[in-house]
Specification:
By secondary structure, this protein is mainly β. It has no helices and 5 strands. A 3-stranded antiparallel sheet has the order 3-4-5, with no helix packed on it. It has a two-stranded antiparallel ribbon with strand order 1-2. A hairpin with a 6-residue loop joins β1 and β2.
């Protein structure tokens, strides 16, 4: 597991998430720990190195 810090796309607070390095590509929804809004998270690892991280609002 790896802790990754980023800015919430809703409240702009810096938050962190634990990322599982054993899964090379992940897309999921997780709520912000500050404002509780749903964040779409896209994570990609290559050889256990984080190569892409996106955290976006789910509003269209």
């Amino acid at each position: 597991m790896m802790e990754h810090y980023f800015t919430c796309p809703y409240c702009w607070q810096t938050i962190s998430m634990l990322l599982d390095k054993s899964v090379s590509k992940q897309v999921y929804i997780e709520d912000c720990e500050v404002c509780c809004q749903p964040i779409e998270v896209l994570v990609r690892f290559s050889n256990s190195e984080l190569v892409d991280f996106q955290a976006d609002s789910i509003e269209q």
